[in-house]
Amino acid sequence: MELILMVLLPFPIGFLIKHRLAAFVTYIAIHNFVFTFQTAELLAAWTKGDTSAFPADPTGFAMFPYAVVNAVIFAVGLGLVWLGNRLATRRRDRRPVDLAA
After folding, report:
1. 40-93 pLDDT, tens per residue?
2. How far is it, in rounded angstroms, from Cα 19 to Cα 8?
3. With 80 as the cut, is the pLDDT of residue 96 above it?
4. CA 79 – CA 24 distance, rounded (Å)
5. Using CA atoms, how far apart are residues 4 and 73, in angstroms rounded to an integer?
6. Do the Cβ atoms of 88 and 14 come closer than 8 Å?
7. Stated pTM of the model
């Protein structure tokens, strides 16, 4: 769910929202909602015995891979927001070329 969000939303958010800070805040808010919902669903499945997302005995660094994968997805999403905003800014700030000169 979070990966689908990262593929579909960050670049258009960065491209369509003019102010970079507003674009970052928008993506962070959407990502946090989806991350919370995803984690709640995975924890509910884990309490029923499903060990596909979390190990049966979560001690020590057992939860570490879940945290790292989600941090990487979040960082890539922020990078795509930045890239979309940068390309939109460059596109908006184009200066017309004087062909007569």
Report:
1. 998 898 888 888 777 777 776 767 787 888 999 999 999 999 999 999 999 888
2. 20
3. no
4. 10
5. 10
6. yes
7. 0.81
If 0-12 CB within 10 Å is exposed, 13-18 middle and 19+ buried, where does residue 10 land? buried
Running DSSP on this structure, what letter comes out for residue 60?
T
- Residues 54 and 62 sit within 8 Å (Cβ to Cβ): yes
Q: What are phi and psi of 48, to 5 degrees?
A: -90, 5
Beta-carbon neighbour count of residue 85 at 10 Å? Answer: 24
What is the amino acid identity at position 11? F
Instruction: Please state, in angstroms and as integers, the Cα–Cα distance from residue 84 to each residue in 1, 14, 18, 98, following that order.
Output: 21, 4, 10, 28
Question: What is the pLDDT at residue 60?
Answer: 67
In this prediction, residues 22-48 reach a mean pLDDT of: 92
Q: Do you know the residue count of the chain?
A: 101
